[in-house]
Amino acid sequence: MVYGVHLSVLIVLVGALAGSYLGFKGAMNLTEGETSDKVMLAGDESVQGLPFEVRCDKFEVSFYDTGAPKEFRSDLAIIDKGREVLKESIVVNDPLTYEGITFYQASYGTTLKEAEIDLTDPDSGKKIALTLPFRQPVTIPGTDDQLVIADYQEDLMRVGQAIELVYGKQGRQSSAQWILIDRPYHGNRIENYLVRVTRIDKARFTGLQVKKDPGIWLVWAGFTLMTLAIGLTFYSSHRKLWVCIEPDKKRKKTIVTLAGRASRNAQAFEEKFEALRAELENRLKNPPAPL
Amino acid sequence: MTSSLLLSLTTFAYLLCTVLYLAGTIFRFKPLLAAGTITGAATLLMQTAGIGLRWMESYRMGYGHAPLSNMYESLVFASWAIMIIYLVFEWRVKQRALGVFPALFSFLAMAYASFSKDVDSKIQPLVPALKSNWLIAHVMTCFLGYAAFAVSCGLSLLYLVRKRFPENPNPQGGFVAFLPGASQLEWFNYQMVLFGFLWLSVGIITGSIWANSAWGTYWSWDPKETWSLITWFIYAALLHARNLQGWKGERVAWLSVIGFGCVLFTYFGVNFLLSGLHSYAR
Fold first, then answer.
1. A21: Cβ contacts below 8 Å, ≥ 6 apart
2. ipTM of the complex as predicted
3. Which of A62, A216, A223, A236 should we substitute to test contact with B (largest number of B Cβ atoms within 10 Å)?
4. Is the pTM of this model over 0.90?
5. What is the rounded CA–CA span in Å between residue B226 and residue A215?
6. In total, how many domains does chain B have?
7. Do A215 and A255 fall within a single domain?
8. Domain range for A277
């Protein structure tokens, strides 16, 4: 019983080590429609490639009328060697496992796909309209300069949606500026141009936790053993017997004292003890013949 | 008839129960102790009905779930668990004078749940993370463990009182007259700790299994996980010290009290003072 409990602890630890060294844990963000086989590992931020691809067909988030989140659901598809082999929806508490790798619904967010902006030169009044795909530099027509959306935030410091524009001029330090999308803002300018965002195209992404854990079955085995072992202690009894042999000089005899204790089920132990005492008395009174 | 009404009555009924047990012990009047047991049992039944009704009310509201999902519901369950564990124990050992602390703890849990501004008693729908059958298993086993440790804390406190006032030859006896002997109390404490240890172990294990299917990790050193593990170690230390080192009664009793302090921190301290996956109080 006791050995079982301690062994179970060791099994769990071995299982945990096996999972750490032989498996991996990371995150994968997929926008709706996106396919990927790369997992961003926790800790060292390295990338783990998967032997198959995952595609997010749809992501849905619903809310209760109290405003609390009701469900996060991702419709995923697994593509192995170019063929779609599995299609399954996942929600929190109901992950998808394929070839020993499990995908958990962890979080979600919104990301920018592209934005249309108007650049106005305040001196000449000239207006340039540009379409900027997220994080792809675009050359400003008529110049050698480049503009790129480096970052997007749904809520920049509680003032709303914003994009970070970076202006790159040949041979000079590039400048960066956060542009507020929904509000008029005197800071909505870059390199002498006034900036106005006329259209944005967003996509929702689902945040998945990805895990491979070969040690997990050892951990479950350890847990099961621990539960059984602790439970069984309630049904096992520890019994202790003492025998004390001392001389009685006065009466030239030997006194044999038998004592016993049980941690459980005293009744049964008392009977066994009585039987043992009677047997001992019998043996002492009628010693077996010497060989 | 609402769960709200039944549970409010439960709070005051547990107070009455505490007073009856206490009066019976102080005034050495056995009928008062018997009244304590009867009040406790009746209140437990009323509380069970209240919990059941709340469960049904949640379904009527359209987002039905077992009443184990927030601070209020867990406090009510903790109070229920303390009382049922104690009453079964009392029935087995026939020692009514031990009821003071369990009844007091049950009352305090209900009172805090009902009157604290930090605890919201409204029935709320389950957020995605809580939508799992593991909710019932994990919360119930953890709180059965906590409840057993609460009872064992009470037994330890009575043991320490008993040690201060050893067997009095005077038949009238001091106010400890109705308490069982020190070695008996020590044995009861040990049994109760072992019982609680089983439930806490299963509680931590079910939490682990649940976390793995929800977030892909069975242990993340979240404050609640860490503190429940610390509690587990303290009681494991108690069991080891008693059986291997032959620790005497008083040390074990104090360890039992410290362990319960750890339980309280794991339950309240983590929710209110630390943040993490388990901060359901906010």
1. none
2. 0.88
3. A223
4. no
5. 21
6. 2
7. no
8. 238-285
